[in-house]
Model the fold of this input.
Amino acid sequence: MSSRISRLPLIAAALVAPIAAGCGGQDRTPSASQPGSVAVTPASATVESGTVTPPVVDAAAAPVSYADAETAFQSGRYTEATDLFASYTSGHPDNPWGHYMYGLSAWKSGDHDRAIEAFDEALRLDPNHRKSLLNSGRVLLETGKPQEALERIERALSIEPLSSETLRLLGRARNELSRIPEAIDAYQRALALDDHDVWAMNNLGVIYIQMGRSDEALGPLARAVQLKGNAPVFQNNLGMALERSGHTAAARHAYASALEVDSTHAKASASLTRLGGPVDPVADSAQTVDLAVLSQQFQAQIEQWRDTTSTDSVVTDSAVVEMVRDSVQE
Done:
């Protein structure tokens, strides 16, 4: 790398100071029957639309159970789940998990204000409700409020310092606040804790692309694609890094791979067309890039981050960041 790699203490004090007082790419369908069971969908995911109009629920005549509301959520009927959890929480106002799922359902149905209100109620009942902190942070990031999101994410990190997910969101909030060296540091820490965090790899690669350091983006993006090749966003971002690094043939293959997974991926389609259309196996065969080697090299880099114990902060080039509209982060 052209910049000096951060050091990675895996201790709470070195990560972030506790605060007395959140969004973005990206894998997964949430489920929250138990406190630790919610896997978070990236803020960049398409919100479910066109669902069947939910029935009008009369809470007094037909009390709603948590299981009924969660079933609607798990089935992707987010508008219906929002109404059902609204009814459930009116009858069970002291259950923070009910308000949390109310907020999650509202967010997934596109009602950001309602989502924040529900997450805040969960936090009023349980100030250490980490998932409400994280997902309200995601909503705030999605609605252009990175400073407010950062405060909640830092609170969540003070509750569970060794969380790859929280460090990844910390990196995204810092990136949106143009605190680029600190964002890189957060992503590197996240990967030192979980070397299979593909969204942290993707987001790190996107930052390098934004900084004009596309060669450095190849490793994390190649690794993300190796671990999860069926994610068109990773293939598309890898294509961007390859194209900007001068590897046109390999970029064409990456864009084509994105379209094999999702034929409607407009950005990959436009990029492939810009580079000359369908892949030509004969013409492209002489211009190969060994993505497996790049992935292996990046994995070795993660091991170096994991082994270090210094508290030195990341140093990066003082480059002006150019925003890359085609990239997606979580």
Observations:
- The domain at 17-160 is CATH 1.25.40.10 (Serine Threonine Protein Phosphatase 5, Tetratricopeptide repeat).
- The chain has two domains: 1-9+197-330, 17-160.
- Residues 171 and 272 are 30 Å apart (CA to CA).
